[in-house]
């Protein structure tokens, strides 16, 4: 396959990831879009490495994959922590994380209302526990 096919696939992945990152407000979708952009760059590096006949691009992709794995672990831990605090993954709810003295940004679109989860019902006991036979009856 010619080099241009690989470059087109890598560019499409990168552009789709950039569009997803800039247009969505969900933290998980933004994280996955950033990962898609990294994979588009990795495909281009491997394609150029193969075209030029050296391993530099492929070694660099190994470093990118390692950093992406570390980033995934840290980002998912951060997303879980933020979700536990606000009960939403909407980015606009994180205004208090900005630097001190910085003006808050105002969204044109209001975030969806936070729905409180109801406590799960407690099930009653199923009935009377049957009597156990004496210990020596099995001997």
Write a structural description.
This protein has a domain at 3-94: Helix Hairpins. Helix 1 runs antiparallel to helix 2 (27-52) and helix 2 packs antiparallel against helix 3 (56-86). Helix content is 56%, strand content 0%. The radius of gyration is 26 Å and the shape is flat. With 139 residues, the chain is mainly alpha-helical.
What would the keywords be for this entry?
mainly alpha, Helix Hairpins
CATH level 1 name of the domain at 3-94: Mainly Alpha
The number of distinct β-strands equals: 0
Instruction: Indicate the structural class.
Output: mainly alpha
Low-pLDDT windows of residues: none
Largest sheet: number of strands, sense, barrel closure: none
Measured between the Cα atoms of the first and last residue, the distance is: 77 Å
Beta-strand content estimate: under 5%
**CATH topology call of the domain at 3-94:** Helix Hairpins
The second-level CATH architecture of the domain at 3-94 is Orthogonal Bundle
Average pLDDT over all residues: 84
- Globally, the shape reads flat
Q: What is the helical fraction, as a range of percent?
A: 55-70%
Radius of gyration: 26 Å
Q: Tally the helices: what do you get?
A: 3
